[in-house]
Design brief:
Blueprint: H1 3-6, H2 15-33, H3 35-64, H4 72-90, H5 92-119, H6 126-148, H7 150-178
Helix pairs in contact: 2-3, 2-7, 3-4, 3-5, 3-7, 4-5, 5-6, 5-7, 6-7
């Protein structure tokens, strides 16, 4: 019995997946070719999202200020989001450095957390513990390098996004072809 026909599944070329895959591959290649422009686009997107999130916090406050104790925190969060978004729009350089350091600190904290977690693995498997420890120490060293070189950190972020777009885009194209 064909389970897909019970749910109205129809085989055929998936044009939406194909087009989105092509667009993702193009975006990924453009990011690899022009990482500086990609970083500026990322900063612009982050600034706009931050401002919109700030407005949302303020709107939520206006609706729930009488029902939620401590809702004044929403005003602070909203204003901070709007200020950060405006600052990012005003200065791409400061925004790029800020995002680069945030990315480096993210790697650093994840590396430390993984080292701490990995320490518990020695009770389960010594080989797995040593392997994870080596990888996490390597990750920790990369995080330290990113902290001392924010330009490398910013480019790494753009490259990771570009490679994700390429991989996901190629996957979408394969799915579109496989469905026919």
């Amino acid at each position: 019995m064909d389970n897909f026909s019970n749910y109205g599944y129809h085989r055929g070329f998936d044009w939406a997946a194909f087009i989105s895959g092509i667009l993702m591959v193009i975006a990924g290649l453009l990011l690899l070719r022009h990482p500086g422009v990609g970083l500026k686009a990322f900063i612009l997107l982050f600034a706009i999202l931050s401002i919109v999130q700030g407005i949302v916090w303020l709107a939520i406050y206006s609706h729930f200020r009488y029902f939620i104790p401590g809702s004044w925190v929403m005003i602070i969060a909203g204003l901070l989001d709007i200020i950060i978004g405006a600052l990012f729009l005003y200065s791409y350089d400061a925004a790029g450095i800020t995002i680069a350091y945030l990315f480096a600190f993210w790697f650093l904290f994840d590396s430390i957390a993984n080292i701490i977690f990995g320490w518990q693995l020695r009770k389960i498997s010594l080989g797995y513990f040593i392997f994870c420890l080596i990888l996490n120490i390597f990750s920790f060293l990369i995080a330290i390098c990113l902290m001392f070189n924010p330009a490398l950190s910013a480019l790494t972020l753009v490259w990771l996004i570009a490679f994700w777009l390429l991989i996901f885009g190629i996957n979408q194209i394969i799915i579109a072809i496989a469905r026919r």
